Amino acid sequence: xxxxxxxxxxxxxxxxxxxxxxxxxxxxxxxxxxxxxxxxxxxxxxxxxxxxxxxxxxxxxxxxxxxxxxxxxxxxxxxxxxxxxxxxxxxxxxxxxxxxxxxxxxxxxxxxxxxxxxxxxxxxxxxxxxxxxxxxxxxxxxxxxxxxxxxxxxxxxxxxxxxxxxxxxxxxxxxxxxxxxxxxxxxxxxxxxxx
Amino acid sequence: xxxxxxxxxxxxxxxxxxxxxxxxxxxxxxxxxxxxxxxxxxxxxxxxxxxxxxxxxxxxxxxxxxxxxxxxxxxxxxxxxxxxxxxxxxxxxxxxxxxxxxxxxxxxxxxxxxxxxxxxxxxxxxxxxxxxxxxxxxxxxxxxxxxxxxxxxxxxxxxxxxxxxxxxxxxxxxxxxxxxxxxxxxxxxxxxxxx
Lengths: 195, 195
Hints:
Two copies of one chain form a homodimer. With 195 residues, the first copy, chain A, is an all-alpha fold.
């Protein structure tokens, strides 16, 4: 990271990430980002046309990082249950390590023109598709069977979002394990009188 | 609704709701809301000090409506499983009937100063608490038993959010029934070789 930050573009992105997360979009000025990054006002415009472009670049970076980490983690797992666990774990780890990222997404989405897809949307679809493909693989290797893959993936990942955002911290060690276990087998423990 | 809208305050709120949902916050002018509501510029300021106050009022109205509808629906159900189903169904119905509401929440949250709780947050906690209290009641009447009520409520409601936002429309008739069924009993159908 420190070697990367000798690059002006990365310095700008690092400063912008912090400023965008703590201020309203229209309160952040390109000049302030330049000052905080220790680069000249001319330099910042050489890399980014305007704030929208900076924002999009930040989210693109984070998105690439998340997908790389997830794909790497999934590759090492044999069972589909474990694949789901590491998808969840990798996402929680990244968001916990980058507490600004959630706000950044929220801001980007709210500021976005409703007609244009905002920069994080593709990442969402990618993760949803990955989860669906794990479901399909589980079916093929007869590990487990999910009736409505699309809807179930939405429910699992929407639930994950709520945990990332509002869940207890520090995270319990077995959190992702338990979420996936309960997702597959039910959140209700069987009671003798349950029907 | 039509009798309600003879009131200038309600006319202003109805116009503001549509404008805030389709434009960026700083692009919406109080004057334009006044024109669209058919009231004078002075009138709008008699009711709302500024845009923030208007926004907060809109979300407070929607929040009150959602909680009223949910509480009414829950009261008529005996089984806790059905209580969960109607909580989900009522939420989906309201958001589907008010397609602007989701954007409004998203905008309000993004524009909010991070130190102040934004107007929809209390509604979130209220619904989470209601779901937790249904879990507790289910335990008491030995209907089903949820191990981690707080975390499970977050997962169920986070999943619901994803379905409201990205789920297939028109909604399947049995959608909420199926979500709750799978939430309680697992999204995986048992396979003979499953372990």
